[in-house]
Queue: 2 jobs
Job 1
Amino acid sequence: MQSHVAFESWLERDHLMLLDFAPEVVAVAAQPFTAVLPTSSGPRKHTPDFFVRTGDGTGVVIDVRPDSRAAKDADVFEATAAVCAHVGWGYQRLGDITPPFAANVRWLSGYRQVKSRGVV
């Protein structure tokens, strides 16, 4: 996309870097909408972390949570997935990335940024 996308955690940043390397991803928007979702504990407001558009036009809503905190919001993720399916979008909850893999992606992303600015 050659533009900045906001993130709220280091884990979100690392997943953005991975999305940047995914050839099928053509656009990413941060915090694309807020919805009031029906959950087992009553209605809850939820703002997903990203909306991704792929080259074939598919939309995917993404929530990023560390695996250790995902169970706390499982009902919201389930409700978000149901709403996304209803409107024809995909849904993913992304979690932890192993430290060596994340370090490699961060290192490689540094070179990707330099090349995209025309420095190399």
Job 2
Amino acid sequence: MSINFDRALGVHPQALTLREKRSEILAANLANADTPDYKARDLDFKSVFQQSLADASGDLRRTHQGHMTGPNALLGAELLYRTPYQASLDGNTVETNIEQAKYAENAVQYQASLRFVSDDFAGLVRAIKGE
């Protein structure tokens, strides 16, 4: 009898991958806080996550060879520009306090997903051991 890890772990590995990508985007925003004309970017986690789940479940059909499939669609997520609350004179749209808050929120959500995966693996180990 084999273990189906996709079923056992659910959506959490996909969430981890997406949270990791969002971390990189937010870190790039923070790193470029003083770069003139830099535009802060982010991705809409909810819509990209739903799209990746639909791709993984096969709800969407690939009708053309050039269309992206599940894992590629996740990595090719469309980045959105963040609208600043207060415009900068040098054209930079990074607001450090907003980016830090978004980064911290994403980090907490990443840790939650990581905990879910860890708990899932612990449950699998218990099942294998017969506990």
